[in-house]
Amino acid sequence: MRQPTSTFKRIPVALPLMMITAILCMAGWGTTDVSANHPVFVEGNCLTPPAGSSPVITPGTCGDYDGDGRIGTAEDTDGDRVFGTITAALGAGGGTGANQNGRVVIVTSGTFAEVVSITAANGNVTLEAAQGVEANVDAVLQGDPGNGARQQAPGIIVNAPADRFVTIRNIVSRNWTEGIRVSGSSKVLIDDCRIENNTNYGIRVQGHAKVKINNTQVSATGFRVGAADFPRVNTPNPGNGIEYEDDSSGLICNTCVTGSFRAGIENSTRDDGDVRLQNVCVFNNNPDFRGFRGPKDPH
User: Fold this and answer.
1) Which of 85, 128, 267, 287 has minimal Cβ neighbours within 10 Å of its Cβ?
2) How many CB atoms lie within 10 A of CB 38?
3) Would you say residue 69 lies in a domain?
4) What is the 3-state secondary structure (H, E, C) of 134-195?
5) What is the DSSP string of 246-275?
6) Using H for helix, E for strand and C for coil, what is the string for 143-158?
7) For residue 129, which of 9, 264, 297, 249 has the smallest C-alpha distance?
8) Residue 193 sits in which domain range?
9) Residue 78: inside a domain, yes or no?
10) Structural domain tally of the chain?
11) Which residues are registered as beta bridge partners of 82?
């Protein structure tokens, strides 16, 4: 089993918030400048609450990590450092909000029916779920009228400058057009994620982005059942598990890509760009690889 690499992940999520904050400070998170050096937390929401349910619940239940009786958007506006949505925790414009260090930790399980945009405008960004937490960035939420619009959008969008670094760790992204889209000059690590049932791409890398994908499962791209059935009624476009395009580059390692409607891993970069594979497993894709030529051919 892969050992956790995060200091926070070694802390049981059931610890009180004040105790966790103290431990983080003792572990080196704190400095004399407390204005911009702490992580922020995102709490869960009963995994899939029906749309329209009250944001005020019995304190300590339904993912209510800080015990204030609020979840979801109600938690975003109560003035503390625990949030109910990822977007609010990231701050304005998807950068790093005021008074935090760019680290956004999801501390209790939940479904986050929101398009997550990360620009890293104000610094490096880490978006991760704590060990044992199921953080599902999902286009579909039971009974929510926004399901249709979300299913026509990418789930996690990263477009960051070249002098910033973005880490996405232990996150599930499903039921979007693209599970994760990385563009521009972004530098990104996608680590220990599950990317499932996205119609067009599991992970799509564009522009000059440099992306390492590690220990990640990409499955059933192009296959989604719902109001818009793929591929029985609608045709995925194209339905690739992972694709690198334009002048992007990257490394895919310790990762499995299975059950894609089209290619499992496609390299469509200009002049067969630098996309490297190490310890990659593929199965039941159509084909497993496309666009790898010469000595880089994974076969």
Assistant:
1) 287
2) 18
3) no
4) CEEEECCCCCCCCHHHHCCCCCEEEEECCCCCEEEECCEEECCCEEEEEEECCEEEEECCEE
5) ET-EEEEEEEEEE--SS-SEEEEETTS--E
6) CCCCHHHHCCCCCEEE
7) 9
8) 151-293
9) no
10) 1
11) 41
- Residue 263 belongs to a domain: yes
**Selection from 242, 205, 65 nearest residue 57 by Cα:** 65
Which distant-in-sequence residues (6+ apart) come within 8 Å of 225 by Cβ?
A: none
* H/E run at residue 290: strand 289-290
Collect all residues with Cβ–Cβ distance below 8 Å to 208 and sequence separation of at least 6: 162, 184, 185, 246, 247, 248
The dihedral through the CA atoms of 20, 26, 27, 32 has a sign that is positive
Q: 12 or 140: whose pLDDT is higher?
A: 140
Instruction: Calculate ∠ Cα 244-281-125, nearest 5°.
Output: 50
Residue 96 belongs to a domain = no
Whichever domain contains 194, its CATH number is: 2.160.20.10
C-alpha to C-alpha distance for 21 and 147, rounded to whole angstroms: 36
Give the model's pLDDT for residue 32: 38
pLDDT tens digit sequence for 58-100: 887 778 888 888 888 888 888 888 999 999 999 854 555 555 6
Interstrand relation of 178-184 and 201-205 (parallel, antiparallel or unpaired): parallel
| CA-based end-to-end distance of the chain | 28
**pLDDT tens track for 46-59:** 755 555 666 777 88
Instruction: Pull the structure tokens for residue 281.
Output: 């497993």
297 against 271, higher pLDDT: 271
- Residue 149, both tokens: 């619009």
Contacts of 140 (CB under 8 A, 6+ apart): 113, 147, 150, 151, 175, 226
- What b/e sequence results for 237-261 when a residue is b if at least 16 CB atoms lie within 10 Å of its CB, and e otherwise? ebbbbbbbbebbbbbbeebbbbbbb
119 and 157 in contact (C-beta within 8 Å)? no
